[in-house]
């Protein structure tokens, strides 16, 4: 599909200049013209776009619309940055949540609640004990966020209608696809290593001396498969996680913007929407998170598969066991999603302003 760029058609580009989804500037148009080898000899009439720039070209809309789309550059950089900052701030709550989920009634339980878990951990291992397993999540936060936002942007760009609008239902499906992809490529091995590290600390004689030593030992004893325990549960958890979060986030943003798709959203509003989306995902899939954690622990051999794990939890511990760690997870996830979406949206805005030229 091509457009002969002349004076009336310049308004098309002006619309793109104002669209937050595209970083298209006169400089990009000029660069594209040079790349395409187009000039006065191509037979296209001259046109003026913003200021003194003159262009002579037949421009491919598909190529132009794909230039510097945030799904590639922004999602990798900003998503990784947001993920790293978020996990450093909220990891202690993740640690407590995982400990409570691993604390089975049959043992009997070692902790009497959140406060007791924090107290015992600090007494035996110091404050740094609350950050045991941080490295595995920190190393995986950049690729995880890159895959999540990159896949969501890729899918949503194909799911939007002609006006560029993404409805809530399609947002849910795009989120589901992003969650499944990040689960398979990044989250499952990352979470397996994290859970084994945290579980190892509860042993009388901890075996893992650090991230790389732990990963080496796991692979030596169990092979690569040892880092992919609980894959089914992880796919279900991450898929439902991102489906719920992006569904809620898309719904709230569409509601807030109303009939004005270019309406700016305040960072506090973005954070509030993110926290609501995070809370919805916690209440929606904590049972899957509990099953995933059990399947990735050091005692995962007790379960034949994901379904067997769920049945044994129900049989021996009751329905309430599926919601262990909900409170610390709620605190971490709400803060997590709020931080990630605030950083993502604000950096996109900044880059969109800085990248433009008049």
UniProtKB/TrEMBL annotation:
Gene3D superfamilies: Mitochondrial carrier domain (1.50.40.10). The keyword Mitochondrion applies. It is found in: Mitochondrion inner membrane. GO terms for biological process: mitochondrial citrate transmembrane transport; neuromuscular junction development. It is a multi-pass membrane protein. It comes from the Eukaryota. Mitochondrial electroneutral antiporter that exports citrate from the mitochondria into the cytosol in exchange for malate. Also able to mediate the exchange of citrate for isocitrate, phosphoenolpyruvate, cis-aconitate and to a lesser extent trans-aconitate, maleate and succinate. In the cytoplasm, citrate plays important roles in fatty acid and sterol synthesis, regulation of glycolysis, protein acetylation, and other physiopathological processes. Belongs to the mitochondrial carrier (TC 2.A.29) family. This is Solute carrier family 25 member 1. It comes from Takifugu rubripes. The gene is si:dkey-178e17.1.
């Amino acid at each position: 599909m091509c457009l002969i760029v002349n004076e009336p058609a310049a308004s098309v580009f002006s619309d793109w200049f104002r669209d937050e989804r595209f970083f298209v500037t006169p400089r990009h148009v000029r660069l594209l013209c040079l790349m395409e080898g187009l000039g006065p000899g191509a037979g296209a009439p001259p046109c003026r776009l913003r200021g003194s720039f003159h262009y002579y070209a037949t421009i491919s809309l598909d190529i132009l619309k794909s230039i510097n789309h945030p799904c590639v550059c922004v999602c990798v950089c900003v998503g990784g940055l947001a993920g790293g900052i978020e996990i450093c701030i909220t990891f202690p709550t993740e640690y407590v949540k995982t400990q409570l989920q691993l604390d089975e009634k049959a043992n009997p339980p070692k902790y009497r609640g959140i406060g007791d878990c924090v107290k015992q951990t600090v007494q035996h291992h110091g404050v740094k004990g609350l950050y045991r397993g941080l490295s595995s999540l920190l190393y995986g936060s950049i690729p995880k966020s890159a895959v999540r936002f990159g896949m969501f942007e890729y899918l949503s760009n194909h799911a939007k209608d002609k006006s560029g609008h993404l409805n809530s239902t399609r947002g849910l499906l795009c989120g589901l696809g992003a969650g499944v992809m990040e689960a398979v490529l990044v989250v499952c091995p990352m979470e397996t290593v994290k859970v084994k590290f945290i579980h190892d600390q509860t042993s009388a004689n901890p075996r893992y001396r650090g991230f790389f030593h732990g990963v080496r030992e796991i692979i030596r004893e169990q092979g690569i498969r040892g880092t992919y325990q609980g894959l089914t549960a992880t796919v279900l958890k991450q898929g439902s996680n991102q489906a719920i979060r992006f569904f809620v986030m898309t719904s709230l943003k569409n509601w807030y913007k109303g009939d004005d798709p270019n309406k700016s959203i305040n960072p506090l509003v973005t954070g509030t929407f993110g926290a609501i989306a995070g809370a919805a995902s916690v209440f929606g899939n904590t049972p899957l998170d509990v099953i995933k954690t059990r399947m990735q622990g050091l005692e995962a051999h007790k379960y034949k598969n994901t379904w067997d794990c769920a049945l044994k939890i129900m049989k021996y511990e009751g329905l309430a066991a599926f919601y262990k760690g909900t409170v610390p997870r709620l605190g971490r996830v709400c803060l997590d999603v709020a931080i990630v979406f605030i950083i993502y949206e604000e950096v996109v805005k900044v880059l969109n302003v800085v990248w433009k030229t008049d």
